[in-house]
């Protein structure tokens, strides 16, 4: 094995182990912590399941196929790759849309994004991708026979899928989700910045004493809210403003987490998407080293999300810490008992 292949294999193995452990932590945290069972976290839970299957199933199959080409049917490897890759992209769109509705239509969010609707959205994503991914296995969308007979057991999209199927997958389920996610998160960033600027201006007005005991109109995110003190005094107004500021800060932290999550996704997924598009249109392939780096990047995406959650959401950090301590205690206790 060449040093290049050895480094790639070792890195993929590390991604598989770390990604599997990290996504199991996310799933257990949401299952065991009632405070984490929120609608936004439904989509994070679904993303963690997809990433876990990617790390624990798709990557090991790729490694086995790399060591022994032809030992695993390429149709199975390709189907699982298409399934988990497509599901991850759809989940990123669901997460972005959920935050878009929460920021753009805060008063109608609880009515439109219910548990039932979130479940229906997630279920529809799975149904679409399962049906689409198994089509080549059934012979629909697979490459012509003469190409399949000459692919030397290598499980590449270009040598196992028809050009029409590959273009539909790359454009409809890869490129368009990246563009849509970019546009939505640009809006989230812009709106979050505007909200914090409005709150900052209101705080300055209160501290300077320019707010009198009359009605105060607060406009943010195209929603007009009128606070009337009616003799309650500036202190009551300050309390209301403080509560609103705390809520906005929490929203901003969640928005920042989603923007980082989606930003990393775009950075790690875009290279292989462009490479596959270039290859699908019949252009000359990129250097093998570049292709391997791009493939490693897309699999890395299934590992990094847990660190994003831990970095921005304190409830996740506390849940991860408790789960790790509990696991360590269960692992150590039998040895302590045997020693006694």
TrEMBL record:
<feature type="transmembrane region" description="Helical">
    <location>
        <begin position="76"/>
        <end position="97"/>
    </location>
</feature>
<keyword id="KW-0807">Transducer</keyword>
<keyword id="KW-0675">Receptor</keyword>
<dbReference type="InterPro" id="IPR000276">
    <property type="entry name" value="GPCR_Rhodpsn"/>
</dbReference>
<keyword id="KW-0297">G-protein coupled receptor</keyword>
<dbReference type="Pfam" id="PF00001">
    <property type="entry name" value="7tm_1"/>
</dbReference>
<dbReference type="InterPro" id="IPR017452">
    <property type="entry name" value="GPCR_Rhodpsn_7TM"/>
</dbReference>
<keyword id="KW-1003">Cell membrane</keyword>
<feature type="transmembrane region" description="Helical">
    <location>
        <begin position="43"/>
        <end position="64"/>
    </location>
</feature>
<feature type="transmembrane region" description="Helical">
    <location>
        <begin position="293"/>
        <end position="312"/>
    </location>
</feature>
<feature type="transmembrane region" description="Helical">
    <location>
        <begin position="118"/>
        <end position="144"/>
    </location>
</feature>
<keyword id="KW-1133">Transmembrane helix</keyword>
<feature type="domain" description="G-protein coupled receptors family 1 profile">
    <location>
        <begin position="22"/>
        <end position="309"/>
    </location>
</feature>
<keyword id="KW-0472">Membrane</keyword>
<feature type="transmembrane region" description="Helical">
    <location>
        <begin position="6"/>
        <end position="31"/>
    </location>
</feature>
<keyword id="KW-0812">Transmembrane</keyword>
<protein>
    <recommendedName>
        <fullName>G-protein coupled receptors family 1 profile domain-containing protein</fullName>
    </recommendedName>
</protein>
<feature type="transmembrane region" description="Helical">
    <location>
        <begin position="164"/>
        <end position="189"/>
    </location>
</feature>
<feature type="transmembrane region" description="Helical">
    <location>
        <begin position="254"/>
        <end position="281"/>
    </location>
</feature>
<keyword id="KW-1015">Disulfide bond</keyword>
